[in-house]
Fold:
Amino acid sequence: MEKGRISAAQVAVLTFMAALANSLLVSPTVAASVAKQDLWLSPLLASPIGFLIVLVLVKLNEAYPDQTLIQYASKLLGRPLGITIGLLYLFFIIHTTANALRQFTDLIKLTFLFTTPTLVVASGLLLVCAFAVHSGVEVVARLPMLLLPVVFMLLLMVYLPSIKDMDLHKLEPVLGDGLAPSLKGTFRLMPWIPVITFMNFYLPFVSNRRGILWWALGSVTIFTLTMLVTFVIVYAVIGPATSDYVYPFMVLARFTRLTEFFEHLESFVMMVWVVEIVIRITFGLYSASIGLAQCLRLPQYRPLVLPICMVIVLVSYWGIPNGEYVFSPELIIYYLLFGFLLPVLLLAMSMIRRLFSGPHNEKDKKGEHVI
Structure:
């Protein structure tokens, strides 16, 4: 089905940039609305969840090195229940990818392409992602490595000129209302953490398995630090008004000035976000395509790419009432159910099975059972 091989570093960078896609622009508002000046603590408190998800996925990959979640769910739960859970998980992937697409099209419509139909914007973006997915896992994994320096350069062009306008006193008093507001902000940030679970569709193709865990943990660490820096800069410049803007990072860039030649740097932010959103949707599209092919026992996933693209467009257009719906408490619980609880339960079942029954044969011991 897939002959390509990738490195642990490529998976780590891919996961980092996919998680960063929707969190960069919207997360300061989401956290500031409940945590206020303590919003910078929220990504720090959320990071243990990310580390735990990574650890669970790596342990499952060690037990079943050549399989994805769809495959070892069928092995652990039995094929009927495993396929049912797998299809629900695939819907979760498609739905969260459609959420990312909806946030992107909303921003484009609100700030740049006022009269362009939403369907045109979404379809054009998905065609680019479909081309990358159709080219195989190596293209999907190497694209972020190629674009990472560009993204960091553009972010620094917004961060560095903003330093002179920062007022760290706006972040005081620290924990003025206790830890509860920061914990609420942590809960509001959960929609981006389960994206890490899509990593399980890429781990079977990693060639240097010995470095998977450290690279994956590094990905979560860099993501947390990026969010921390972004939150501090945005709130230290904009202050309590951060929660009043839908895209405060865009507002920050709009009033940032770099020398006498560069002003209104929101175009740089849009360049970063277009790159990030292409990687995020490609990340989810490949996962959904190869997962559905495994559920249906198809020899190739490529014929499924365009149909899944059409489903993503339809879900983003009709299945999501508005951008704020993505951050509702009910939807966050839904994210955590499939993005966190499901992998943890599968790992627990794998450990219990090995503890009480032991491997029945050498292939089962090595996780080489193919479904």
User: Anything to note?
Assistant: The two ends are 12 Å apart (CA to CA). Strands lie at 257-258, 262-263.
